[in-house]
Amino acid sequence: MSLIIIYTTYSSKEEADKINSMLLKQRLVACVNNIEVNGTFLWENDIERSKEIVSLIKTKKENWIKIKEFIEKEHSYDIPCIIKFNAECNDLYLNWLNTELK
Fold it and tell me: Which of 32, 43, 45, 75 is 20–30 Å from 97 (CA)?
């Protein structure tokens, strides 16, 4: 199994909890870490600042497309940031992930 970490941001903790819980219930992801951050970005030629929630989503590579499409469909942003990182981890954690995922 190949491990990936998906990085995405949400406008609120409630939105992050809602979408991430749906992914967990479908067993597409095994673990999610949420971190509150201050985002700064360009939007329609202006510099915008906002509080956001970053989610680090741990799953297997085979689930990438389903997760990406699900987040795009459910997300409140017009253009959500959804980034995939290939990752390596210790065998015990990888075995646990494998037992929890579809």
Answer: 75
